[in-house]
């Protein structure tokens, strides 16, 4: 179990634990604070994160800004990677493809999910992580694939 997953397991069942975990995520990566993320589910190969529609993420037409939605997708991918990639390895974002498929007029939920958890060996590899960002009615508004580069840590 990774350190991140161990912390999630420890906190998620406690009153206010998910909120505390989400705050810790925002402290570790301060830029993510802009979308006020709340981690809802976390396990190897899966993460769900929500973000409210507040004035700080609205664009000129009053919808959830496209780049703010991308930030939410990146948070979901990052938490999935932290829960999935073993502590003997590291990961780095390598690229992101995004499709804006509908107006984001409500709060959002991003779900990152791997179809299959890969083997983590000695060779570095690219791992595409699909993410779907949906509105509060479950309608997809953004789809993304964020590719990460996974390698064994030096000395591991």
Keyword list:
156 residues, alpha+beta, Thiol Ester Dehydrase, Chain A, six-stranded antiparallel beta sheet, 6 strands, globular, HotDog_dom_sf, DUF4442 domain-containing protein
Give the structure's gist in a few sentences:
This protein is α+β, with helices and mostly antiparallel strands. It contains 3 helices and 6 strands, in the order ααββαββββ.
Word description of this protein:
The protein has 156 residues and is of the alpha+beta class. It has one domain: Hotdog Thioesterase (Thiol Ester Dehydrase, Chain A). The protein is built from 3 helices and 6 strands, in the order ααββαββββ. The protein has helices at 3-11, 17-28, 66-84; strands spanning 38-43, 46-51, 89-100, 108-113, 125-135, 140-152. A hairpin with a 4-residue loop joins strand 5 and strand 6 (140-152). The longest helix has 19 residues, at 66-84. It is globular, with a radius of gyration of 15 Å. The two termini are 16 Å apart. It comes from Amycolatopsis acidiphila. This is DUF4442 domain-containing protein. It holds the Pfam family DUF4442. InterPro entries: DUF4442 (IPR027961), HotDog_dom_sf (IPR029069).
Order of helices and strands: HHEEHEEEE
**CATH hierarchy, class:** Alpha Beta
What percentage of the residues does DSSP assign to strands (E)? Answer: 25-35%
Helix content: 25-40%
Number of helices: 3
How many separate domains make up the residues?
A: 1
Query: Mean pLDDT, rounded to whole units?
Result: 95
Q: What is the structural class?
A: alpha+beta
CATH architecture identity: Roll
User: In whole angstroms, how far apart are the ends?
Assistant: 16 Å
By CATH, the superfamily comes out as: Hotdog Thioesterase
Number of DSSP strand runs: 6
What would you report as the Rg, rounded to the nearest angstrom?
Answer: 15 Å
CATH fold field value: Thiol Ester Dehydrase, Chain A
Organism: Amycolatopsis acidiphila
Pfam families: DUF4442 (PF14539)
InterPro entries: DUF4442 (IPR027961), HotDog_dom_sf (IPR029069)
Protein name: DUF4442 domain-containing protein
